[in-house]
Amino acid sequence: MKRFVYINDDEASKELCCDNRISNTKYNLWNFFPKNLLEQFSRFMNQYFLLIACLQLWSLITPVNPASTWGPLIFIFAVSASKEAWDDYHRYLSDKKANEREVWIVKHGIKKHIQAQDIQVGNIVWLRENDEVPCDLVLLGTSDPQGVCYVETAALDGETDLKTRVIPSACVGIDLELLHKMKGVIECPIPDKDIRRFDANMRLFPPFIDNDVCSLTIKNTLLQSCYLRNTEWACGVSVYTGNQTKLGMCRGVAEPKLTAMDAMIDKLTGAIFVFQIVVVLVLGVAGNVWKDTEARKQWYVQYPEEAPWYELLVIPLRFELLCSIMIPISIKVSLDLVKGLYAKFIEWDVEMVDQETGTASYAANTAISEDLGQVEYILTDKTGTLTDNKMIFRRCCIGGIFYGNENGDALKDTQLLDAITSGSTDVIRFLTVMAICNTVIPVRSKAGEIIYKAQSQDEDALVAAAAKLHMVFVGKNANRLELMFNGVMIRYEVLEILEFTSDRKRMSVVVRDCQNGKIILLSKGADESILPSACAGQQTRTIAEAVEHYAQLGLRTLCLAWRELEEDEYLEWSVKFKEASSVLVDREWRIAEVCQRLEHDLYILGVTAIEDRLQDGVPETIETLRKAGINFWMLTGDKQNTAIQIALSCNFISPEPKGQLLLIDGKSEEDVSRSLERVLLTMRTTTSEPKDVAFVVDGWALEIALKHHRKDFVELAILSRTAICCRVTPSQKAQLVEILKSCDYRTLAIGDGGNDVRMIQQADIGVGISGREGLQAARAADYSIGRFRFLKRLILVHGRYSYNRTAFLSQYSFYKSLLICFIQIFFSFISGVSGTSLFNSVSLMAYNVFYTSVPVLVSVIDKDLSETTVMQHPQILFYCQAGRLLNPSTFAGWFGRSLFHAIVVFVITIHAYAYEKSEMEELGMVALSGCIWLQAFVVAQETNSFTVLQHLSIWGNLVGFYVINFLFSAIPSSGMYTIMFRLCSQPSYWITMFLIVGAGMGPIFALKYYRYTYRPSKINILQQAERMGGPILTLGNIETQPRTIIEKDVSPISIMSTQPKNRSPVYEPLLSESPNAIRRSFGPGTPFEFFQSQSRLSSSSGYTRNCKDN
Amino acid sequence: MSSNTASSSAGSGDSSAARKNSKRPKYSKFTQQELPACKPILTPGWVISTFLIVSVIFIPLGVISLFASQDVVEIVDRYDNDCIPAPARTNKVAFIQGDSPKACNRTLTVTKRMKQPIYVYYQLDNFYQNHRRYVKSRSDSQLRSPKFENQISACKPEDDVGGQPIVPCGLIAWSLFNDTYTLSRNNTPLAVNKKGIAWKSDKEHKFGNKVFPKNFQKGNLTGGATLNPDIPLSEQEDLIVWMRTAALPTFRKLYGKIETDLENGDTIQVTLQNNYNTYSFSGKKKLVLSTTSWLGGKNDFLGIAYLTVGGICFFLALAFTIMYLVKPRRLGDPSYLSWNRNPGGGR
After folding, report:
1. How far is A982 from chain B (nearest CA, A)?
2. Where, by residue number, is the active site (chain A) (predicted)?
3. Which of A298, A754, A789, B3 could make an S-S bridge to A472, C-beta 3.0–4.6 Å?
4. DSSP 8-state secondary structure symbol assigned to residue B25
């Protein structure tokens, strides 16, 4: 499908007829109510409450005033509807702002000022510096004579560096005045969401260059929401408008995520619902039987002889209404409220603020904090997540000579500096490639410094390093590059750029040396993509060894190469390249093929090694979380060796003899299947041993394993606590998440780059690191944090507390609802099973909404264990992971407790208030006060730490109960007029209350004490230890001490600094260079080929940064 | 050389500096969840003393309650069966619905001195005033003011007679208790004060002094007592008492007050009109004379319950003490933590 855009021609473009109105709103004024209601009623709970509320309108069966259900129901609906409306209104406002922005366009040959929403496809739009691009444009002209302009694409992909955009070749040299009158046609694909691709063609009409089809790429476009920078003006023709722009198409609503806890609560609600139906059926039948046998004799009830057809239904329905409070209507509101607060606590946490940038953590999804406490698997990206993504050029190998091996910094290697001064050809060429084989833009700041705007951190590191080695990339002026070498200006003219793609894994530039006119091809790329193209005579062995050596140190490597081209060869090739660049179908592949024809017989100059430092606290975080029973998988696009080294240095895998690495590899299906089986076999036998077994798999083998041996792989996934997946693509990352999810594991995915977005969205919890690679991952994520080490706190502190608090809150909500419901059920046995409510409507409504919900809400600041204790004993997270605090058996406990309390309240009330005191209103209030007193004590007993707020809410609520009831008792028209005053003046009322509390709490308190002391859970033990200030602290110290020693030794963080000689002994032998040493790690019966063929196995080089772009 | 100053993308640098001020969360004890908290733990000492204290409070309270209840003198006389002449006892319902004379004489003996005021109650057993059909069959607004005379929708089936609203409407009023008692002591009439038996608030606010009975008991079914149509509802105290529905199927309602002391050995003759039909549902009718204490009428339940709970608490305190002495357990011993015993535990 294609679309034809006629430039500057209103008539011809009419058929496309879309203006540039952006609309992100979900509702409009008219459909808000129906649509929102429909949405809310798609939830089962809401349907249930609506049904109950409707039934209550039938006065024959309603035991209480319908307001007691309608009130809360409408309240709840109003709350969520207004929240939606508020959000939508803000979306509307921001849309409106964008729509009404004024822009300059050309209409009928005249420049006009119109609102952004009136832009039509085919209009020519003019932009000035720092303007936001209103729709997707194809560049036609810029202020720059070479037709270059710079854009900031942060809003689109989160990358903060400037990107260059150029005008199509056909438009070069068109006069400013002529631009107004330009006519032509652009043939482009129908709107899609790929922001890195735009394969189109343009043909200009006479008087412009006739019939010359000019190919367009993404480099010729200005996409909506980007900003024009460093360019005075630019103009372009709009091709996609409104919601059809690339940005508009990218927008999508992520599926709402449901926590495991919500699922459990739903399950329990379902169980309660079934229980309720059973109760209703039993009581309904009993009621009808009693009616026919007894009630007919009770003349004062006057049961009619003739009954309407629905007579049999009346009593069951009455009980249905009476029991409807079993499912607490307040639970959804309470949960939403506390979940919002959990999210706020995460955002407020000053210990999770990145000190460097001042970025606080952010919870985009406020509904899933509990899941953080139940994480079982963490899938993490490597670059930028575990590491800093701060690339530093450390070592290099030029022509077989290693630089930087002694002090770990090639920039200070005197040998290299000498070589530069002496002007060794290889070294100078090497530096030239470092400096100009890239897409970096040098920008001179006002202070005169040169700032490099690089899309990739690797390129940035190389250019900066070259500058330090006296090869300064000074300026880029259209196609002219200026290099300053030792004070001498060298100029190059860029002829072509053969761009990086993740398939080619290399990039090249063709430049002409302006001094001697020679045409040179400069290439850099992964070893496996460069080395095969080496010229016949060259020995690549030393290069391969260097690559291997660097990779084992955890460095990212790039091979640099060089070739002089003949003029003819270049010209011939250049035609083909142009041809390939204008193909609409499979353009990328065709270009790759053409590039291949030029990139051969390369002279390999050497290898660069770039260090990517580990982030602070990564090893400790991983160790703590692993102790907490969380399994780690590392998914990276990096090469295998680098990944393993990083994994070792951050405690990801344990070195021998504690750990064992198993490799799944192979190029063919059989190979993979064989090695998968072998690994599985080893896994099964070693699971009993306390040994850390990890498997390593690369993208290729993973692809085959997932395709043909999914079952085996899933089993492997279940058996293995640790896995390293290298060279994996974004979609494979998402697939791995899906596999773990399908095994019912709670997964957390953490990443920082655009390539992690799919994994982050797929996982139960997505965490984004708001790092250097832009905010793309952080935007898609549920939580964004500044540093990896905050993950520890996010899970152990926030996740755990959230889980504990919600566990208490939800079960307590059921407890209090069941309590009052059981009393109603008991009462029905002494009221002729007729479905009379003991409590009046006001009490019933206020019970759920006020009396019982306030104290429990304060449980959001309850802490069972202090943060330090949890950090010292991360194993305690197991209680959350295994769902020990909210499951059917704990729920049964609460169910039993409410039954017991209902019996206590009911029996004591009807006996203490018997005979002459058995007035209905009074009895109801006595029973209700009994419930309130009990619930206050239950909350108090379940609270682990009392702050002022807790005391205030628990006891204040009790006082509030009396205040509210005194108020109602003062209103003559209310049913309970004077009741509360009468009761409170009776000694027997207070005596009854104390009795209820004593009888209700005594056994529960005793049971709790018994469990706490004689059958303590781990949480109890830690509580005791923590509060007695006893031995636990010394234990913690013992635990941390040896680790700090190791830390000093490894001086972690930088792998670079761990020289082979002073490496900590624990890291033997996996770190040792000899492949044989590694082979020892596998038992004698398992002769795995592990590292020996790594250069062929691993393919993605230190170039991952660029892979992410794709 | 200028090259030394080359640095990487500066865009993030200044933008993050701007963010620094706006994004950094405010520090407060609440937002950091660090409010000073008291974290009690259940040490044996605390728990045992709590139980001891509870038992020390509850047992005396139970004794006091029991004494209060024992102080109350109560005479209960069940008359529903005896007040039907022997021949009619085969079909009691027919007798009570018939026109034969319903007068009946009962003699009660005072076994212990009763100090005034002595309350006269009637007690009904197995009478469901709390039945769903019954309890809702009333119109409070109608009782309060003549303006709302026609608000009778809740009163079915006793709502109107031939289109005219019944005042007071509904099953409760319709089934008003209509046995009457005339008491005499040692053959001298004993005054039973029927004033002031209803709640003051009911008389003043719930039953209007301008609302007069209308069309009451005029329907084709006659329920209980009739009302004098010339006395406003606020003065019809029997009705007001009756309309305070009981929550239990066994209940007592105040009939009147005797404002003289009764001595030990006094005999009290009761002449009663046995009008009310409890026979069709085999309910009992009892006449109760009772004094009162600070805790109310005669009711041993509270005392016994207090003694039981207090006893149990004492027993628990004792049991926990013994357990503590026999099998002491160190609280918070880290050796109980399974992961300290075998590494990698938890799963």
Report:
1. 10
2. 381
3. B3
4. P
Query: What gap in Å lies between CA B123 and CA B287, rounded to an integer?
Result: 6
In terms of DSSP H, where are the helices of A301-352?
Answer: 311-323, 330-348
Q: Comparing C-alpha atoms, which of A253, A193, A239 is closest to residue A20?
A: A239
Residues 630-689 of A with CB under 8 A from B: none
Non-local (6+) Cβ contacts of A842 within 8 A are A68, A968, A974, A975, A976
pLDDT in tens, chain B (347 residues): 333 333 333 333 333 333 334 456 677 888 888 888 888 888 899 999 999 999 999 999 999 999 999 999 999 999 988 989 888 888 888 888 888 888 999 999 999 999 989 999 999 999 999 998 899 899 988 998 888 888 888 888 888 888 888 988 999 999 999 999 999 988 899 999 999 999 999 998 889 989 999 889 888 788 888 899 999 999 999 999 999 999 999 999 999 999 999 999 899 999 999 999 999 888 999 999 999 999 888 999 999 999 999 999 999 999 999 999 998 877 777 777 766 654 443 33
Residues from chain A that touch B145, judged by Cβ atoms under 8 A, are: none
How far off is chain A from B171, nearest CA to CA, in Å? 7
Q: How far apart are the first and last CA of chain B?
A: 61
Residue A122 CA to residue B213 CA, distance in Å, equals 88
Instruction: State the Cα angle at A663 between A661 and A665, rounded to 5°.
Output: 170
Q: Which residue of B has its CA nearest to A343?
A: B31
| Closest to B2 in 3D by CA, of A474, A18, A435 | A474
| Cβ atoms A237, A7 nearer than 8 A | yes
Alpha carbon of B282: minimum distance to chain A alpha carbons (Å): 9
What are residue A774's DSSP bridge partners? A771
Answer whether A1031 sits within 8 Å of B333, measured CB to CB: yes
Closest alpha carbon to B204 in B171, B228, B231, B240: B240
Task: State phi, psi for B185 to the nearest 5 degrees.
Answer: -110, 130
Contact A188, A239 (CB under 8 A): yes
Q: How far apart are CA B82 and CA B272, in angstroms?
A: 12
CA–CA dist A546, A938 (Å, integer): 69
Spatial distance between the Cα atoms of A744 and A882, rounded to a whole number of angstroms: 12
Residues of chain B in contact with residue A1025, where contact means CB-CB under 8 angstroms, are 331-334
User: Within 13 Å, how many C-alpha atoms sit on residue A584's CB side?
Assistant: 13
Longest alpha-carbon distance in chain A:
121
Any residues with CB less than 8 A from the CB of A1033 and at least 6 apart, and which? Answer: none
CB B178 within 8 A of CB B276: yes
CA angle A358, A363, A366 (to 5 degrees): 160
- Which residue, among A497, A462, A466, has the nearest Cα to A219 in the 3D structure? A497
Q: Is A291 annotated as a binding residue?
A: no
Helix (H, G, I), strand (E, B) or coil at A212: coil
Residue A216 and residue A907: Cα distance in Å, rounded? 85
**Is there a catalytic annotation at residue A266?**
no
d(CA A584, CA A701): 32
Q: Does B294 touch chain A (CB under 8 A)?
A: yes
The annotation status of A1015 as a binding-site residue, yes or no, is no
Test mutation, B309, B316, B347, chain A, max A CBs within 10 A: B309
| Complex ipTM value | 0.91
Residue range A583-594, pLDDT digits in tens: 767 777 888 888
For Cα atoms A351, A353, A359, give the angle at the middle one, nearest 5 degrees: 170
**Chain A residues near residue B50 by CB distance under 8 angstroms:** 1005
Provide the 10 A C-beta neighbour count for residue A410.
25
User: Which member of B2, B19, B246 has the closest CB to residue A918?
Assistant: B246
Number of Cβ within 10 Å of residue A173's Cβ equals 12
Contact B132/A460, CB-based, under 8 Å? Answer: no
**Residue closest to B9 by CA, chosen among A153, A23, A952, A831:** A153
